[in-house]
Amino acid sequence: MGKRDGDGGSSGSEVNWEEIPWDETKKEAQIWLEQRGYHYIETHLENALGLFLTAYDDLGQVFFKSGIPTRPKEGILSEFLAQHFPDCSPNVLALEPEKGWMVTRNMLGEALPKGNFPLEVWQNILQDYAQLQQKSQALQKPLQDLGVPVLDWVDLVMQGHQKMQSRGWLLAQELKPLEVEALLERAQAVPKWLEELSALNLPNTLIHGDFHPNNVFYAPQKTTFFDWSDAAISHPWLDFGRFFNWAFVTQLGREMWAMPQTEADILALRQSYVQAWLEPTPSALSASSAAQKLVVPFMLGRGADFITRAGLSPARFFRIVLRCLL
After folding, report:
1. CA dist., res. 72 & res. 69, Å (int)
2. What is the largest CA-CA distance in the chain?
3. pLDDT by residue (tens digit) across 250-267?
4. Which domains does the chain carry?
5. Over the stretch 162-213, which tens digit does the pLDDT of each residue have?
């Protein structure tokens, strides 16, 4: 995708993860967990993304998550996915849906960033994920009944495209003038990328919405996909594009995740995902590259409400996303 760059510094308006007021939730959660027979309860992590506790029952360690109040569906959706896709979902043990609380069994294996896994493992993971998406086509009605939104990806791409065509809006994201001019030029290609991806006529499926290596655990007997708080029904390859952008384009991702980095390996990973859907012809691979680029206007179209939960100011997040096209 050309030049790979980082975010170019921080913004003074970032969310301070240390000041999220989780104290009352933590007290309530401890009582709730003890009433259900869990003990040795400790804080694992608390930040803008949620409150995470560890605890134990007679079978071993469990994890408690209290997500963002505006996204209480994650636990219900995770339980639904565990019923339909037990081979690639966390084992949900308890829920408090109104509060967005969920308890899951400790997942098998290792988080992808820590595993230093060979190329074949990454290929299998992408193929497993494509199969989950394909099987989800038959479940769109119950998914919508659970509150999973249907996103008109073409409309959102065009909304993001409109932002990308505005010099004033781009400058407000604290981009350098030369970057702004480069992005204005890239924006002219959005309709072409849109036409290329649309030509495949792929059906909408469940999308994770935040698909990257940190949200995957791997063990030889099971690949687990988790953290479905941004899930939606939309074009499946947008998830693939997001995964590739974070893993191979952003400086943050390349520093965080031990992904295969040679051009041959990256091509092999692209082929692994594409061939789960159709023959990996040059035109299909080109369309997957178009999907990777279209993730940028798609995410811009979803807007600041979607991204501020990441603990970054909108300007900084948009800056990181936009630089995926430079």
Report:
1. 6
2. 60
3. 766 677 777 777 889 999
4. 108-325 (3.90.1200.10)
5. 999 999 988 888 888 998 999 999 999 999 999 999 999 999 999 999 898 8
